[in-house]
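Aim 2 progress update. The chain analyzed this quarter is reproduced below.
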Amino acid sequence: MASVYYINKGINKPLEFKGLKAQYIAYLAIGLVFLLIAFAVLYLIGVSLYLCLFLIGGSGFILFTQVYRLSHKYGEHGLMKKAAKSAIPQYLRVSSRRIFTDLKRK
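Predicted structure tokens:
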């Protein structure tokens, strides 16, 4: 009997779940864990259950919308590139390629 092997066509593709790409899944998971802990703390302190639900529900909605917005705006690596670009000192930034293209001409 011959074995049947299937080719995995998803090799080297970024991880994606319901529109969230790459590291944004982790950001959402960390935010949800934080909201769960915040709910438990608020409830144990004695805050009204309805107020807890309203606060955590509103925060959860804001968390979801912001993470999805970042995911769609920056994509898989864009947020890391933005953070790296802002970490470069001002005197090292080059806004034009003219410096490098003039090197070839001389």
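The chain has a mean pLDDT of 84. Residues 13 and 61 are 29 Å apart (CA to CA). These observations will guide the mutagenesis experiments scheduled for the next reporting period.
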